[in-house]
User: What shape does this take?
Amino acid sequence: MVILLVDDNPDIIQLISAMIKRIPGASQHEIVFGRDGQEALDILNASEKMPDLIFTNLRMPNMDGLTFIKQVRLNDTWLNIPMVMMTAQQSPDIRREVMANGATAFLAKPFNFSEIKSTLENFGKAN
Assistant: This one.
């Protein structure tokens, strides 16, 4: 399995990676990193292996997570990749907007190990 993590904060990338590695059955997943939506699009375009799951932050420089999700959903090759939006902005309006524009799930920051584990299990990526 390949998981793409998109966040401009290296500490968040490191935290999620460490959490995934602790999940039984998920420790062997390949984790790919992008620092913003544009870098993540470049990774998707250049990759021979499509990610099985994408986690993206909402607020990032260059291209934010919402724009990134919209761009991913325009490409038929990537249309069915589950995408998890991560954000500290937890208003119902933000949640509705990201879900209406192609996010598959919403993960409020700060999150914990059990939320990451549950997210992977929900998408069948924990085994």
